[in-house]
């Protein structure tokens, strides 16, 4: 997958995640919105590759969300795959 394709996949996944956030409780929505904003900020700043904590942070969160929000986890796993493809 090229970097361009990875960025497109990341953008699509982030849009899907934001759409899904409308159907979750406020606490979950706030946690995920903060995570998405962090990703977008780091990419905009060109510093995402330096932030190895993004993926590690999500791996810790996945355990919390897997049972309650499996669709969210699937979308965020797509985001993680795109980030990984970009070398992040």
Description:
With 88 residues, the protein is mainly α. The chain has one domain. The chain is 80% helix and 0% strand. The chain is built from 4 helices and no strands. Helix 1 runs antiparallel to helix 4 and helix 3 runs antiparallel to helix 4.
Output the helix-strand order: HHHH
* Number of helices, counting only DSSP H or I runs of 4 residues or more: 4
Query: Distance N terminus to C terminus?
Result: 14 Å
Largest sheet data = none
**Beta content:** under 5%
**Stretches with pLDDT under 50, minimum 5 residues:** none
Short description:
The protein has four helices and no strands. By secondary structure, the chain is mostly helical. It has one domain.
Task: Indicate the topology.
Elements: H1 3-20, H2 26-45, H3 53-68, H4 70-85
Helix pairs in contact: 1-4, 3-4
Structural features:
88 residues, mainly alpha, 4 helices
């Amino acid at each position: 997958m090229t970097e361009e394709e990875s960025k497109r996949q990341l953008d699509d996944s982030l849009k899907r995640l934001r759409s899904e956030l409308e159907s979750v409780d406020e606490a979950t929505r706030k946690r995920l919105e903060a995570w998405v904003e962090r990703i977008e900020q780091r990419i905009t700043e060109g510093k995402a590759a330096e932030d190895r904590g993004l993926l590690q942070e999500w791996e810790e969160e996945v355990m919390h969300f897997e049972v309650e929000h499996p669709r969210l986890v699937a979308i965020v796993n797509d985001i993680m795959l795109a980030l990984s493809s970009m070398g992040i």
